[in-house]
Amino acid sequence: MELQNDLLIRAAKGEKVERTPVWLMRQAGRILPEYRAVRNRLSGFIELAQTPELAAEVTIQPVDILGVDAAIIFSDILVIPEAMGLPYEMVEKKGPRFPKTISTDEDLKALKKADAKSDLGYVLEAIKITKKELNGRVPLIGFAGAPWTIFCYMVEGHGSKTFSKARRMLYNDPMMADQLLKLITDSTIEYLKAQIKAGADIVQVFDSWAGILGPEQYQRFSMKYIAEICDAITEVPVTVFSKGAFFARSEMRHLNCETIGLDWSMDIQNSRRLIGENKTLQGNLDPCALYAPDVEIEKATKKMLDEFGTSRHIANLGHGVYPDIDPNKVKVFINTVKEYSAKLRSTEI
Ligand SMILES: Cc1c2[nH]c(c1CCC(=O)O)Cc1[nH]c(c(CCC(=O)O)c1C)Cc1[nH]c(c(CCC(=O)O)c1C)Cc1[nH]c(c(C)c1CCC(=O)O)C2
């Protein structure tokens, strides 16, 4: 099936595009009443994610309702630990919880490498259905968490300000940390390859907790494993989003990936200078800018587009869209990107 709108893929590869493609991290779910209507028919997030027809439906909603240039498959990064033998729960208003965590060698030994086909077949099925229903309208993004971020949840058991249990292991038992990170990495590579085989046109690795490591530990315990994933995925373009890893931007130019995501604290011109011309940059409007009046959203979006320029940019927020953002504000952002980025190109000589 040929893509009718392939702006995202072409921008990722560094090809010329008529306008800047735009989508939002965490666009599936959260902000749309249409999503909540589907979710309220079920017991919660996990049941929805494990029901391929409905997961496909909420994956496509933002394409129909918001007009984004890509769909991202409705799932979560925490399906990997579950497939490795560590199930999670989603606690209403609190987020994910792991009843069991990894702290001893015995805990580690009880884990296995995730088998994408048998353990994560529901995600692959959702991708297949979504591809069929999208019918080539826009590309479908597959994703996984970066090994370090997954490690944080598996050791800590839930979100944390400091992730001090996870970081303690890096000092107390770096060998054990490496073993766990390697098992997550191997599981993730197989999982991403299975997503691509099922139909994902591009994949993104989310390192949401990159920013809690210092530069040396980030290289040693996070970037190293992300690099392994990038080297292994050769079938489609890869995006790496390491939130808070401003200190690693010059190293990111060496990753075997097409696109680097920027959070809103990373200034655009410096990031381009540090990362170089050979990567597409994705981002990076402050998610809170969408609380502003429409004219201010337009202004901030145009300023962002002026700074990124007309080549190698995918417009997005600097992190996932916040749950209480009015979908109409998201539309102002999306429409401004579409109109203004086309105008910027039409005035280029
Ligand atoms: C750290 C992380 C998680 N999950 C994810 C990350 C990395 C991105 C980031 O940093 O935001 C990634 C994720 N989670 C979800 C998606 C689906 C696709 C999309 O819309 O981008 C994606 C890409 C669905 C979800 N994941 C979750 C929901 C809400 C569950 C519900 O409907 O009750 C959804 C739609 C739950 C979740 N899952 C996670 C948390 C901390 C929470 C609770 C708080 C929150 O909602 O963000 C772990």
Automatic annotation (TrEMBL):
Binding of substrate, residues: R26, Q27, A28, G29, R30, D76, Y153, S208, H319
Listed GO CC annotations: cytosol
GO molecular function: uroporphyrinogen decarboxylase activity
GO terms under biological process: protoporphyrinogen IX biosynthetic process
Subcellular location: Cytoplasm
Pathway(s) of this molecule: Porphyrin-containing compound metabolism; protoporphyrin-IX biosynthesis; coproporphyrinogen-III from 5-aminolevulinate: step 4/4
Pfam family, one: URO-D
This enzyme's EC code(s): 4.1.1.37
Site feature (Transition state stabilizer) residues: D76
Keywords: Cytoplasm, Decarboxylase, Lyase, Porphyrin biosynthesis
Chief location bin: cytoplasm
The keyword Cell division appears for this protein: no
Database matches in InterPro entries: UROD/MetE-like_sf, Uroporphyrinogen_deCO2ase_HemE, Uroporphyrinogen_deCOase
Catalytic activity as recorded in UniProt: uroporphyrinogen III + 4 H(+) = coproporphyrinogen III + 4 CO2
Similarity remark: Belongs to the uroporphyrinogen decarboxylase family.
Entry function: Catalyzes the decarboxylation of four acetate groups of uroporphyrinogen-III to yield coproporphyrinogen-III.
PANTHER family linked to this entry: METHYLTETRAHYDROFOLATE:HOMOCYSTEINE METHYLTRANSFERASE RELATED, UROPORPHYRINOGEN DECARBOXYLASE
Description of how the protein assembles with itself and partners: Homodimer.
Stated name of the protein: Uroporphyrinogen decarboxylase
Protein encoded by which gene: hemE
